[in-house]
Model the fold of this input.
Amino acid sequence: DVILRSSDKELLYSWKILLSISSPVFRDMFTLPQPDADDVDELLVIDLEEDSCTLGHILSLCHPPSCTGKVTFKVDNVRELGAVLEATAKYDMGNTRRVALEELSNPSLLRQDPLGVYALACQAECHEGAKLAAKHTLTLPSLVREYVPELEKI
Done:
């Protein structure tokens, strides 16, 4: 009964009740009077700053089967995970964020970008994730200086 429009203008359909359960920010948003804005299929359209990939990940965590605790959440890279963690913090999505934080121990991400995972873990104050990622940075060549944008946010 609601549509989220991403920054890249993709429309993502959802239900207010599931978003309200997942996020007090959305719950409060839905209690406010809504302006006469765009509507698609007679549904409320809410414009958000996040891109469709990030919103898709968040919605997959908010919707069943996520509610049962049997979630398979995987991102392709550290930048995707960073965007999901940032959005879940922004919308105060505690349970959704906890599931996303588990990706800090994803072996594929740790092999691909251990320094980026370390930076995300530090930002999220996830000490175990930071320790695990720090160990994986030992596999990096010591003379290679690689720019990791996630380090800017520590």
